[in-house]
Specification:
With 217 residues, this protein is mostly helical. It is built from ten helices and no strands. It comes from Kaistella solincola. This is Phosphohydrolase.
């Protein structure tokens, strides 16, 4: 199913307005990159393009990190918008399912098999968390939180629970080991896996150079 251009533009305008002034790692440009990646991956999958594009555009409309941990606000805002746009209940239900389950911290709550549309948008979102863009976003958010870049005596907290992950204020470098370097092996689609490989290698090279410079090697 193809998505109407009018609905796309209305959604783009709505998201831009909602995210005006957002933290730079979770702003409109993040949404745009995930949207474009989702469309690229969707070309290789048998999927509902309307669900994919709407979910990609709305997936971070109210990230809980910036709303006191409220995981229902994004669902409420998206539901009200989609109803105003007269989107079918079936499509709305699928879009909200993706928004609810896309997050890294919610990965253990998903069933073993889940819709291809979620697989696509989740891969796109994870791709934007790794590689050069992922590095930039990670340091931007670390600065936003005033976290240390690195501390040799603070080890990464591997295998955090959902609640531990939500409350974590570890170093930015530790975040690579707690999340970013794990994403390559969590990709769903073949296209996503292929794209993640290159970005993963780039991050490993960055970390190697970072430690060399830190230690004045």
């Amino acid at each position: 199913m193809e998505i109407s251009e009018k609905l796309v533009q209305n959604t783009v305008n709505f998201v831009k307005g909602q995210l005006d002034g957002a933290e730079a790692g979770h702003d409109w440009f993040h949404i745009e990159r995930v949207w474009n990646l989702s469309k690229k991956i969707a070309e290789t999958e048998n999927c509902n393009r309307e669900v994919v594009e709407l979910a990609a555009l709305l997936h971070d409309i109210a990230d809980p990190k910036f709303h006191d941990g409220d995981e229902d606000l994004a669902l409420k805002i998206s539901l009200e918008f989609l109803q105003r746009e007269n989107v079918s209940e079936e499509i709305i239900e699928q879009v909200l399912f993706i928004i609810k389950n896309i997050s890294f911290k919610n990965r253990h709550e998903l069933p073993g098999i889940f819709p291809v549309e979620l697989q696509i948008v989740q891969d796109a979102d994870r791709l934007d968390a790794i590689g050069a863009i992922g590095i930039a976003r990670t340091f931007n958010f670390g600065g936003f939180k005033n976290n240390l870049m690195y501390h040799p005596e603070i080890p990464p907290a591997i295998g955090q629970s959902k609640e531990e992950y939500k409350k974590s204020n570890g170093t930015t470098i530790n975040h690579f080991y707690e999340k970013l370097l794990l994403l390559k092996d969590l990709m769903n689609t073949e296209k996503g896996k292929k794209m993640a490989e290159e970005r993963h290698i780039f991050m490993l090279g960055f970390l190697e150079q970072f430690y060399r410079e830190w230690n004045a090697v």
